[in-house]
């Protein structure tokens, strides 16, 4: 069976919808039917003992049964890999998915918030078995992709396992050391706007699953004032801060 998955950098779990989920799940392909797989192992079989049965994304939740099976991701083939077979998505999660994929692949850093309850992310499983050239992955997003073009089959981006594609970028990468476990967090002490600087938390989290920049309200208000020269205003409908179009004249961020 083939599944289309969203990727999430803040959790480790891979999950797919079960045939038993029915209308409770939002998916684009077909749900997983265990009887159609000759390599499927139910929860009674030896699998990752720390795989959770419930996963929460913000305020959205999925629940199911930890199982294992063999599957492929591109040219990489995995055997006896653990995943969550989901039989329940709450209304928030159905709205998040909204037929944008069948499930989610977690790409969180392996250490985990609780070292005593770690479980392998899919990427860690791939890397430690030497199935890719380098223990790294890269994400490229197509700036020209739209909802219409992706519906028509055009890829909105690429996830590259084991390295990079030099045809997709110019220049050199800047490397940052990770400052914590689980989340992809790096050190950050300030945000500079022209000649002005605003102190921020010592750590920031990189998240490919969001298009926004999230900061505490005090820091955001200071940045808006520096950028626009006026007090920060919030749009009541979206809950987002409004910036005038002239901010580009006030310096680079």
TrEMBL record:
Sections of the chain in a coiled coil: none
Residue stretches making up the Peptidase A1 domain: 1-253
Any one GO molecular-function label of the UniProt entry: aspartic-type endopeptidase activity
GO biological process, one term: proteolysis
Pfam families named in the record: Asp (PF00026)
InterPro entries reported in the protein's UniProt record: Aspartic_peptidase_A1 (IPR001461), Pepsin-like_dom (IPR034164), PEPTIDASE_A1 (IPR033121), Peptidase_aspartic_dom_sf (IPR021109)
PANTHER family named in the record: BETA-SITE APP-CLEAVING ENZYME, ISOFORM A-RELATED (PTHR47966:SF51)
Entry similarity comment: Belongs to the peptidase A1 family.
Protein name, entry field: Peptidase A1 domain-containing protein
Origin species: Physocladia obscura
């Amino acid at each position: 069976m083939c599944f289309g998955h969203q990727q999430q950098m803040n959790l480790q779990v891979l999950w797919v919808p079960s045939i038993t989920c029915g209308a409770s799940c939002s998916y684009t392909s077909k749900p997983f039917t265990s009887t159609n797989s000759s390599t499927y192992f139910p929860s009674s079989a030896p699998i990752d003992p720390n795989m959770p049965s419930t996963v929460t994304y913000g305020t959205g939740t999925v629940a199911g049964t930890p199982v294992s099976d063999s599957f492929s991701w591109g040219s990489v083939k995995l055997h006896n890999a653990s995943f969550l077979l989901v039989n329940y998505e709450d209304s928030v999660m159905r709205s998040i998915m909204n037929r944008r994929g069948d499930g989610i692949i977690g790409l969180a850093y392996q250490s985990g918030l609780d070292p005593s309850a770690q479980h392998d992310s899919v990427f860690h499983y791939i890397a430690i078995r030497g199935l890719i050239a380098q223990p790294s992955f890269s994400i490229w997003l197509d700036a020209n992709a739209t909802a219409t073009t992706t519906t028509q089959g055009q890829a909105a981006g690429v996830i590259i396992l084991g390295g990079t594609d030099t045809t997709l970028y110019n220049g050199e990468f800047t490397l940052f050391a990770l400052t914590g476990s689980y989340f992809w967090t790096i050190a950050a002490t300030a945000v500079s706007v022209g000649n002005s600087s605003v102190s921020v938390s010592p750590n920031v989290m990189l998240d490919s699953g969001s298009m926004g920049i999230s900061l505490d309200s005090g820091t955001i208000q200071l940045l808006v004032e520096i950028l626009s020269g006026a007090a920060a205003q919030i749009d009541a409908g979206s809950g987002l801060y409004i910036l005038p179009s002239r901010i580009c004249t006030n310096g680079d961020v």
